[in-house]
Amino acid sequence: MTGSHRRILVVEDDPETAGQLVESLTSSGYQVDLAACGNDALSRGVASDYAVITIDRMLPDIDGITVMRQLRAGGVAAPVLIISALGEVDDRVRGLRAGGDDYMVKPFSFVELLARVEALGRRSDTVVKETILRVGDLAVDLVSRTASRRAKEILLFPREFQLLEYLVRNEGRIVSRTMLLQHVWDLHFDPSTNIIDVYVGRVRRKVDGQQAYPLIHTVRGIGYCLRAPG
Amino acid sequence: MLLAKTLTSSTFKIALIAIGTFGVIVSAIFSYVYLSTASYVRGRSDRTIMTELAALQDTYRRSGRDGLIALVQQRIADTSFVGHVYLLTDPSRAILAGNLKSWPPADGTRGWTEFRPPEPLPGDANPPLLRTMLETLPDGDHLLVGRDIGDLDSFTDRIKTAVISGAALIFVLAGMVSILVTRRTVGRIESINATTRAIMQSGLDQRIPLRDSHDEWDSVAENLNLMLDRIETLMGEVKQVSDNVAHDLRTPLTRMRGRLEMAYHGARIAEDDQALIGDTIGDLDAVLRIFSSLTRIAQIETQARKSAFRTVNLVEIAGEVVELYDAAAEQDGTRLIVAGHGEVLVTGDRDLIFDAIANLVDNAIKHGRAGGQVVVSNENIDGRAVISIADDGPGIPADQYDHVFKRFYRLEHSRYSPGNGLGLSLVAAVARLHGAQIEMFDNSPGLRLKLWFSAAAVQ
Q: Which CATH entry fits the domain spanning A3-125: 3.30.1490.20, 3.90.180.10, 3.40.50.2300, 3.40.50.720?
């Protein structure tokens, strides 16, 4: 990502939440602008080029989704992350993911926010053209749908392969349980059990078992990260 | 008080209108009866007089004045002609024959006249009321034929009295009956009102008294009582839920508070602080999850999500759930099997159905027998889509079947296993949204739970 593409517009009316968002994004190396209402967001959004825009669903003046629509109409292509309370999640919000934007339900963890912002920011500038993805000694063949470590094939069920593919595509980034549920299972709710952990555990045994070093790491309280050592 | 309410009640007003209308009709009928009776009686009497007059004129024509005088005298003597009056005078009004002492005061010569002579008829105390026909005979003599119509008048008067008193009696009776009926109605309404007021003042434990009359008032009271029962149950459940929420939240919140307080007063040790903050975030997440689950259940229960309904295949969803839980089952040593193939289609929200089935499978794995098996099967039965989840664990006592769907309800032996007691409430809410029935059986051993989607939800 280039310098200008680490610029983020945060639209949030609650000062404390806004402060926390700005702080956590800034500490991750983003340059953050803050808009406290929909009109402010519209003028700023059109004026500058942002990598990602996060918008609170409930703003004092204009509805978050409307702000997003108006930005799009004004030629702003930056991906949008709508932050909404559970009760405000309806079909319009759920439809965001299909359009390449995203939503998050309050309350959320900042690690989750960062993970989503990262994923959105990357969406626009990286298109994976390779058919084989490699991380350390792991190779994932997207065409034959097989994975191997040190040329030794790992036997995976289709869903397990999808999970590994998603982790590999997000190499080095934290992936939350909710993100896994959404992208691997297309589920837009949290089953609120440790089911994902158990599932990842099984994939991990297959991928990391009896290997020189582990690739799949647990990030306590958040999710997982796949990365090569060093 | 009750009488005042009776008199102002709408029932009474309607009764009054009915009585009024009825009264007008009855009066009209009675008046008609009276008038036609009176005119019939009078007409009959007039015809008798005319006939008599014709007979006398006939005699006059045939036998002359003397013949007529003889006939008149014969008539007066004849007891079967009592009440008849006759008078024959010459042109100068000198009396020739008859039982009247004088010509009528009106002094007419022809036609009907009614009058009261100054003296009574022989054998009577008072002068009678006479109706007479006057005629002038061809040679100038005057003839009067008439009857005492006092009897007729008293007859029609009696009819008049009977008619009026009959009508009055009907009015009085109708008035009394309507007051009694209205009083009864107002009484029942008052008892309902009194109960309603008592409920508003003191609480939902009051019920409207029944009179065991099995009438419409009893059925109204019964239905209202049933509604009150339902409201009381719901209120109880709401109270139960808020008690449980308070309890389930107080535990982690107390833990967090204690932990933070100890850390606040203790020395700063980076490592300990890190762990403490991590644990606290974990506890907070648990609290937030309870809120999310409650919101989600409430959202489903208010049917806010019918917009996401599509035709979905239960077999496919069950397959995905089983795939998701396969690893968890494996960890518990449970065999997780999906039976049935092809298409079992329902109209519904995929995410919600997934969530419901996931909760049921999760429960089956968690509460089933370690090393046992969980079978998920889908079928079309009588045009209805059915999914069943069966385990071979300890099962649920039959008397608990109804309770397990309540929010935060947990069976005694699972009180300390993970979970918040909201899973089956969510299943119940999803089922209700989809018009599906939940059925539970003893799987001997274990529990078999069936979700019957309604025919309408199946395509």
A: 3.40.50.2300
